[in-house]
User: Fold this.
Amino acid sequence: MMELVDIGANLTHTSFDHDLPRVLGDAADAGVNRLIVTGASDEGNRAAQLLVEQYPQQLFATAGVHPHHAGDYTDESDSLIRTLVEQGKVVAVGECGLDYNRNYSPHPAQRQVFESQLKIAAEYHLPVFMHLRDAYDDFIEILADYRADLPAAVAHCFTGTEAELEGLLAADLHIGITGWICDERRGHHLHEFVHKIPPDRLMLETDAPYLLPRDLRPKPKGRRNVPAYLPHILEAVAAAVDRPAQQVAVETTSTAKAFFNLPE
Assistant:
């Protein structure tokens, strides 16, 4: 069985409250033995820690504040992230970044909060797990001031253009690919240039419970995405980069383990 790492799963979402043990069991049965639980708010960061404590062999966590919640970022938010980092309880800072598509938080707040979390990651020399949507110019400008002090950085759930991908790679970023690549309406363009991502920069993720692969058959009831669907995303990525799925599995797993410094 192929071994896979899901680098972005929102397992603190309420849709997993009733059946998380089964979800994690199904993931393991599908070869997804390591999952990074995304921290995206104060409450989410605390909840992610509780999950890691319950499943220490399978789950690891990030800690950060998503741009959607940037307006809620306080000194306590900053302190919580720092505390979790200092206690060695997280493998990356984030999810942080910019989202000018939904604009749930004002742009100035998003930029300030993104920079605050980059400072934390740089100070503690941790990888950073980043969100980018419709904000490439500001994103790359802010990141440039900190990139040299970051051991690694990933643009998770990449959905952008070829030019944006090239810019992110030039900034020495890793790239996370989700089931967006399985969407013939919005994500088909990725098939044309995803092969440009070097094998040692490519990682896979579900972003569960979001972004259910659109071409998944049969359609799950409730349309909830789960980590067990990561092999489906692997197959789509492997076809796009024209390499065997087994090879891409080995490459992306090795890359994820190195990026997040996961134990063997």
Observations:
- The first helix runs from residue 20 to 29.
